[in-house]
Amino acid sequence: MRPAALAALLLASTATAAEPPPLSRRIDARVAAGLAAAKLAPAPQAESHELVRRLYLDVIGRIPTAAEATAYLDDPNPAKHHALIDTLLAHPEFPLYWRGVFDHWLNGSLLERPAGGSDEFKAYLERRLAENAGWDQIARELLDPNGDDPASAPAAYFLASRLAGNDRAAQVDAMTTAVSSVFFGVQLQCAKCHDHPDVEDWKQENYYGVAAFLGRTYSAKAKTGNGPGLTERPDGEVKYAARGKDYTARLLFLDGTVPDATAGRRKSLVALGVGAERPYFRRALANRVWKQFLGVGLVEPVDQIHDGNPASHPELLAELGDAFAAGRFDLRALMGGILHSDTYLRSSRWAAGSRPADNHYASAVPKPLTGPQLAVSLALATGYIDTLTAKYEREKARLKLDAVTPTVVRRQFEREREHAALAGRFPPPGEGFQANASHALFLTYNPAVQALVRTPSGTAARVAAERDAAAPARRVYLAALARRPTANEEARVAAYLATPNVSRDELARDLVAAVVAGTEFRFAP
């Protein structure tokens, strides 16, 4: 637990809110050098309404409320985006949102399991993120959990979830793939049956060398809590065939180190793979976080970091990894360095000519909202979140809630069927996701979305009750898009709501439905 480190980060950020941290300046220098070499000029900084929406979505996974958007838009401070970044990194919804992101990286995509890990595992991730635990601590607990410690025992789910069924080879393969992808940024599967045909770095012995660290790991009854446990047996070897011969895999780390594993094989893997001096570990998560914010990784795919697939900006990737390690793998410090950079703050609009390749970072990349982002943002935009708040206040005793805060409401909403109906419909970007017309139609006609739009006392009901001609457009646009409408948009909305022979309530619902189905709502700018 590192509250002192978190406090120091936030105090330092507050003291120099107008001055980006050193890492931000180094990021901008590296990207600027690449742009100069490509003879490209960067896009200008995004407009205020774009930045407030982008930052809320990227840092805490939802759109700003109308009140939050208004406060930001009306703030005359030219450095207000830096202050907002610091506020959001310390926001109580930060660990709630990022537990879902990390759970997807650890379980959702690798296990093809959209719902991700168990509730106990997600609660473990949220606790560690709230404590500002370093990524190295979290990685050690995921790879070698202490079953006697109730706080870290749920981390066993990460490996134990790969141990289902009776196919031992498949179990070891699932663990090897997950560990090498998430923690080291490498994909070894293609070297399982033979030396990798396209990647000189990875031979068959590299795959089985990592597999050997995990080959004695089995599921066991947990010593504490309700989740699964792990055990490491004293014997058992991983066997494989190559070039017509049978081999016993030797312990071999990615850098060619052959360890002494007398203390335990997973402990040996942690010692070799996790820490400030471990380049694979330093770079892997830095690249994932960069992609999360910028839309495209410095290396793509994110688990294909090898000499044959160089980074678009090799020095920048090394610098991010070095800064991450030097900061004791402080996730918020890494994120802050990226978010405060001019590179991140650029507009996604490109004035003239064809847009450069995304990995030049000349402009921002519009990112489609993920399922979880979309679900909570729809609840906010339609006013359904107020209905939930009132419901949880009434049921506080039954739900065993001490208080009904926005964070508590959001956490409870994630358990509701409406959330599942919305979040499960939109896979995360980067997983073959394409935002297309079918998604707009889903948001327009799906019963779950329509139920939110029809929320009594929600946004549509408030729009219908407005009598000032310009007020309806302002209410909808601030609630959904974090901006004020143009004069033309105000006039068009007023004319639409005056359509004869149709009830104003129905017109207001159709207006809200149209806005949340639109491209501007479905993308982070």
Structure description:
The chain has 525 residues and is mainly alpha-helical. It is 54% helix and 4% strand. The chain has 3 domains: 150 residues, no CATH class; 139 residues, no CATH class; 157 residues, no CATH class. The protein is built from 28 helices and 6 strands. Strand 3 and strand 4 form a beta hairpin. Helix 2 packs across helix 15. It is globular and about 80 Å long. The protein starts with a helix and ends with a strand. The N terminus is likely disordered. InterPro entries: DUF1549 (IPR011444), DUF1553 (IPR022655). This is DUF1549 domain-containing protein. Keywords: Signal.
Count of distinct structural domains: 3
User: Biggest β-sheet: count, sense, barrel?
Assistant: 2 strands, antiparallel
Q: What portion of the residues fall into strands of 2 or more residues?
A: under 5%
Helices and strands: which structural class? mainly alpha
Strand order of the largest sheet: 1-2
Task: Determine the oligomeric state from the structure.
Answer: single chain
Helix content: 40-55%
Number of H- or I-type helical stretches: 28
Average of pLDDT: 91
Specify the overall morphology.
Answer: globular
How many β-strand runs?
6
**Distance N to C terminus:** 35 Å
Provide the low-confidence segments as ranges. 3-16
**Radius of gyration from the CA trace?**
25 Å
Signal peptide: 1-17
Domain DUF1553: 265-496
Organism: Urbifossiella limnaea
Keywords: Signal
